[in-house]
Amino acid sequence: MEAKAIARHVRVTPRKARRMVDLIRGKKATEAVNILKFAPQSAALPVRKVLESAIANARFNADKAGEAFHENDLVVKTTYVDEGVTLKRFRARAQGRAARINKRTSHITVIVANKEGDR
Protein backbone atom coordinates (compact mmCIF):
# COMPACT_ATOMS: atom_id res chain seq x y z
CA MET A 1 0.00 0.00 0.00
CA GLU A 2 1.20 3.46 -0.85
CA ALA A 3 0.21 6.89 0.47
CA LYS A 4 1.15 10.34 -0.76
CA ALA A 5 1.14 13.85 0.70
CA ILE A 6 1.95 17.15 -1.00
CA ALA A 7 2.50 20.61 0.46
CA ARG A 8 2.40 23.46 -2.02
CA HIS A 9 3.62 27.06 -1.73
CA VAL A 10 5.77 26.34 1.33
CA ARG A 11 7.78 29.47 2.19
CA VAL A 12 11.18 27.80 2.23
CA THR A 13 13.66 27.66 -0.63
CA PRO A 14 13.80 24.39 -2.57
CA ARG A 15 17.54 24.03 -2.00
CA LYS A 16 17.14 24.13 1.79
CA ALA A 17 14.17 21.75 1.70
CA ARG A 18 16.09 19.27 -0.46
CA ARG A 19 18.73 18.98 2.27
CA MET A 20 16.05 17.71 4.68
CA VAL A 21 14.40 15.46 2.11
CA ASP A 22 17.73 13.79 1.32
CA LEU A 23 18.14 12.92 5.01
CA ILE A 24 14.94 10.84 5.19
CA ARG A 25 14.75 9.16 1.78
CA GLY A 26 14.70 5.35 2.16
CA LYS A 27 14.38 5.33 5.96
CA LYS A 28 11.56 3.97 8.11
CA ALA A 29 8.79 6.54 8.51
CA THR A 30 8.98 6.63 12.33
CA GLU A 31 12.75 7.03 12.22
CA ALA A 32 12.43 9.82 9.64
CA VAL A 33 9.98 11.73 11.86
CA ASN A 34 12.46 11.55 14.75
CA ILE A 35 15.31 12.74 12.54
CA LEU A 36 13.30 15.74 11.39
CA LYS A 37 12.04 16.48 14.90
CA PHE A 38 15.59 17.09 16.15
CA ALA A 39 17.08 18.65 13.01
CA PRO A 40 18.08 22.28 13.66
CA GLN A 41 17.25 23.52 10.16
CA SER A 42 14.07 25.56 9.71
CA ALA A 43 13.06 23.51 6.64
CA ALA A 44 12.71 20.41 8.84
CA LEU A 45 9.32 21.50 10.20
CA PRO A 46 7.38 21.68 6.89
CA VAL A 47 9.00 18.45 5.66
CA ARG A 48 8.05 16.71 8.92
CA LYS A 49 4.45 17.93 8.61
CA VAL A 50 4.20 16.53 5.08
CA LEU A 51 5.68 13.21 6.24
CA GLU A 52 3.21 12.98 9.14
CA SER A 53 0.39 13.76 6.71
CA ALA A 54 1.52 10.92 4.42
CA ILE A 55 1.56 8.54 7.41
CA ALA A 56 -1.97 9.66 8.35
CA ASN A 57 -3.09 9.13 4.74
CA ALA A 58 -1.68 5.59 4.85
CA ARG A 59 -3.58 4.91 8.08
CA PHE A 60 -6.81 6.23 6.54
CA ASN A 61 -6.36 4.15 3.36
CA ALA A 62 -5.70 1.01 5.43
CA ASP A 63 -8.82 1.58 7.53
CA LYS A 64 -10.86 2.24 4.41
CA ALA A 65 -9.62 -1.00 2.80
CA GLY A 66 -10.04 -2.98 6.02
CA GLU A 67 -6.36 -3.87 6.19
CA ALA A 68 -4.16 -4.02 9.28
CA PHE A 69 -2.03 -0.93 9.73
CA HIS A 70 1.37 -0.90 11.40
CA GLU A 71 3.20 2.41 11.36
CA ASN A 72 6.53 0.65 11.89
CA ASP A 73 6.18 -1.11 8.52
CA LEU A 74 6.09 2.14 6.54
CA VAL A 75 9.16 3.28 4.62
CA VAL A 76 9.75 6.64 2.94
CA LYS A 77 9.72 5.43 -0.64
CA THR A 78 10.04 8.68 -2.60
CA THR A 79 10.54 12.29 -1.61
CA TYR A 80 11.23 15.28 -3.77
CA VAL A 81 11.04 19.05 -3.70
CA ASP A 82 10.01 21.11 -6.72
CA GLU A 83 10.29 24.84 -7.11
CA GLY A 84 7.06 26.73 -6.54
CA VAL A 85 6.08 30.26 -7.50
CA THR A 86 8.50 33.08 -6.81
CA LEU A 87 7.12 36.03 -4.86
CA LYS A 88 8.59 39.26 -6.23
CA ARG A 89 9.08 42.14 -3.79
CA PHE A 90 10.68 45.57 -4.03
CA ARG A 91 12.56 47.52 -1.41
CA ALA A 92 13.06 51.25 -1.92
CA ARG A 93 16.65 52.48 -2.04
CA ALA A 94 18.33 55.85 -2.12
CA GLN A 95 18.20 58.08 -5.21
CA GLY A 96 15.05 56.48 -6.60
CA ARG A 97 16.45 53.01 -7.08
CA ALA A 98 14.67 49.86 -6.05
CA ALA A 99 16.19 46.55 -4.97
CA ARG A 100 14.37 43.49 -6.26
CA ILE A 101 13.84 40.70 -3.73
CA ASN A 102 12.78 37.22 -4.84
CA LYS A 103 11.17 35.04 -2.20
CA ARG A 104 11.14 31.43 -3.34
CA THR A 105 8.58 28.79 -2.43
CA SER A 106 8.60 25.00 -2.68
CA HIS A 107 6.30 22.10 -3.42
CA ILE A 108 7.21 19.19 -1.13
CA THR A 109 6.04 15.64 -1.98
CA VAL A 110 6.44 12.56 0.24
CA ILE A 111 5.35 9.02 -0.67
CA VAL A 112 5.38 6.28 1.98
CA ALA A 113 4.83 2.58 1.32
CA ASN A 114 5.00 -0.75 3.11
CA LYS A 115 8.30 -2.58 3.16
CA GLU A 116 8.86 -4.53 -0.04
CA GLY A 117 9.41 -7.88 1.70
CA ASP A 118 6.15 -7.86 3.67
CA ARG A 119 3.76 -8.52 0.81
UniProtKB/TrEMBL annotation:
GO terms for biological process: translation. GO terms for cellular component: cytosolic large ribosomal subunit. Pfam families: Ribosomal_L22. Transmembrane segments: none annotated. Keywords: Ribonucleoprotein, Ribosomal protein, RNA-binding, rRNA-binding. The keyword Cell division does not apply. It comes from the Bacteria. InterPro entries: Ribosomal_uL22, Ribosomal_uL22_bac/chlpt-type, Ribosomal_uL22_bac/org-type, Ribosomal_uL22_CS, Ribosomal_uL22_sf. One of its GO terms (molecular function) is rRNA binding. The globular domain of the protein is located near the polypeptide exit tunnel on the outside of the subunit, while an extended beta-hairpin is found that lines the wall of the exit tunnel in the center of the 70S ribosome. PANTHER family: CHLOROPLAST 50S RIBOSOMAL PROTEIN L22-RELATED (PTHR13501), LARGE RIBOSOMAL SUBUNIT PROTEIN UL22M (PTHR13501:SF8). Part of the 50S ribosomal subunit. NCBIfam families: rplV_bact (TIGR01044). Belongs to the universal ribosomal protein uL22 family. This is Large ribosomal subunit protein uL22. It comes from Bifidobacterium goeldii.
